[in-house]
Design brief:
2 domains, 10 helices, alpha/beta, QueA-like, 17 strands
Length: about 400
C-alpha cells in the first residue's frame, strides 16, 4: 500500500548562508554528526573510523561525474546550454563514451524555445584551438519540453569521453548559485571515482581521503564498491503535495557477484556510504524476488516495496535467487535499474549504518533519512541547524544508525 505522506511535513528553513558554496580546503576536516537511538553528538570526519564497528562491510558508490554541461550557439548568436543526462544511441555508457564520430543522448536543454531545427556549433569564445579541432555540433532529434534527444557529431576522431573532457564543464548543483570553477573538477568527485556516468556526485563520498580509507581498513573493515550512476533528478525537491504523486527517475546500477555473496554470508554490520549506495543495496531484495517469480532480474519499480506481497520471500531467499541466476548464466555482476523511493514505512533489509550529507528540504533524500532513523529526522536537522553545520553537496556529513 502506497504510504500517504505530505511533503510539507518534511520541510525545514534552510538559509542560503548555510549552504556550503565551496568545499573545505581538506576533505576530511568537515564536521561529522553522530546519531544513534535518538542521541546526537558530533566529531570531525577524519575520526569516522573510530565510530565504525570492527569487521564491518562498508559499501561505496564508485561512479564518476562526467563534464556533462556543454555550451553551443546558433547562427543568430543565441546561446543554448545542453546538459547530457544519459546515452540513447549507443545506450550503454561505455560504448557511448567510446564513440568516435557521433552519438545520441537524452539532454536537458537550456533556452530550449530558441532552438529550432538548425544545427548548433560548439561555443568557443576564447578561440581555443583544441576546442575548434573537435568540430562538435548538436542536432535536435526529438523535443519533450525542456528535455530532448540530441545527436552530437564531431570530426576529430576523439572518443566522446575525451570530447567532454575538452569542452564540457562539471555540472555542479544549481543551488550553489555559481558557475563551475576549476576547483570543482577535482573536488566535485570522490577520490575513488572510477566508472564514468553520473551527472551529480554521490556527495557523501566527497569527505573520504586516502588516510581515512586506510584507517577504516586497519579496523578490519572490508571496503567494497557498487556503481549507481546518479541522475539529475536525485537532489530535486518533490513538487507534488502528495509524495504518492511524485515520479521517481530511473538510475542504472551494477553490483558484483562477489559482493552479493559477501552480503549473503551476513554476520556483520553493513555500512552504506551515501543514499545512492543505500538505494542500490536495498533494491537487491526486489531484484532477487524477480528472479524467483520471473526467472531473471529486472528494474525495481518506485512503489514495489510497498505492495501487499512485498514480504512473501525472505531476504536470504531473494539473494540466493539472484546469486543463482548470475552463476547459472556465468555473469560477473547484475546490471539493472531502480526507481525505488524509500519513505517512512519502508522495511530496511540490508543496511545498518549510513554516511550521508544534509539534504534539501522537501526532497526524497529527507524522506529516506526519516525512514532510516524511524521518523526522527528533525532531531538530526534541528541539531545541525542550531550548531552551525554546513549543508548540501559541499557541506558537512553525518553517520546514522538505523532505528531498530
Amino acid at each position: 500500500m502506497i504510504p500517504e505522506i505530505r511533503i510539507e511535513d518534511y520541510g525545514y528553513p534552510l538559509p542560503d548562508e548555510r549552504i556550503a558554496k565551496y568545499p573545505l580546503e581538506k576533505r576530511d576536516s568537515s564536521r561529522l554528526l553522530l546519531y544513534k537511538d535518538g542521541h546526537v553528538d558530533e566529531t570531525v570526519f577524519s575520526s569516522l573510523p573510530d565510530y565504525l564497528p570492527e569487521g564491518a562491510l562498508m559499501v561505496f558508490n564508485d561512479t564518476k561525474v562526467v563534464p556533462a554541461r556543454l555550451h553551443f550557439e546558433r547562427s543568430t548568436g543565441a546561446h543554448i546550454e545542453i546538459f547530457c543526462l544519459e546515452p540513447v544511441d549507443p545506450v550503454e555508457y561505455n560504448t557511448s563514451f567510446a564513440a568516435t564520430s557521433h552519438c545520441r543522448w537524452k539532454c536537458v536543454i537550456g533556452n530550449a524555445k530558441r532552438w529550432k531545427d538548425d544545427v548548433l556549433n560548439l561555443s568557443n569564445p576564447a578561440s581555443d584551438a583544441e576546442v575548434a579541432r573537435l568540430g562538435l555540433t548538436a542536432t535536435l532529434i526529438e523535443r519533450n519540453g525542456q528535455t530532448g534527444i540530441v545527436e552530437f557529431a564531431w570530426v576529430s576522431g576523439d572518443a566522446f569521453s575525451r570530447v567532454l573532457e575538452i569542452c564540457g564543464t562539471i555540472p555542479i548543483p544549481p543551488y550553489l548559485n555559481r558557475e563551475s570553477e576549476s576547483i570543482d573538477i577535482e573536488r566535485y568527485q570522490t577520490t575513488y571515482a572510477h566508472i564514468r556516468g553520473s551527472v551529480a556526485a554521490p556527495t557523501a563520498g566527497l569527505h573520504f581521503t586516502p588516510e581515512v580509507l586506510e584507517h577504516i581498513g586497519a579496523k578490519g573493515i572490508d571496503m567494497r564498491y557498487v556503481c549507481l550512476h546518479v541522475g539529475a533528478g536525485t537532489f530535486l525537491p518533490v513538487k507534488t503535495e502528495r509524495v504518492a504523486d511524485h515520479p521517481m527517475h530511473r538510475e542504472p546500477f551494477s553490483v558484483s557477484l562477489e559482493l552479493l555473496k559477501e552480503i549473503r554470508r551476513g554476520g556483520r554490520k553493513l555500512i552504506a556510504v551515501g543514499t545512492t549506495s543505500v538505494r542500490t543495496l536495498e533494491s537487491l531484495y526486489y531484484i532477487g524476488v524477480k528472479c524467483i517469480v520471473n526467472g531473471c532480474p529486472g528494474d525495481v519499480d518506485q512503489w514495489e516495496p510497498y505492495s501487499d506481497d512485498a514480504d512473501r520471500y525472505t531476504t536470504e531467499e531473494a539473494l540466493d535467487a539472484l546469486i543463482g541466476y548470475l552463476e547459472s548464466n556465468a555473469l560477473p555482476e547484475v546490471k539493472v535499474g531502480t526507481r525505488i523511493i524509500i519513505v517512512p514505512g519502508f522495511r530496511f533489509r540490508l543496511v545498518d549504518m549510513m554516511v550521508t550529507n544534509f539534504h534539501q528540504p522537501e526532497s526524497t533524500l529527507i524522506l529516506l533519512v526519516s525512514a532510516f532513523v524511524g521518523g526522527d529526522w528533525r532531531t538530526i536537522y534541528d541539531y545541525a541547524l542550531s550548531h552551525g553545520f554546513r549543508f548540501l553537496s559541499y557541506g558537512d556529513s553525518s553517520l546514522l544508525n538505523r532505528a531498530q
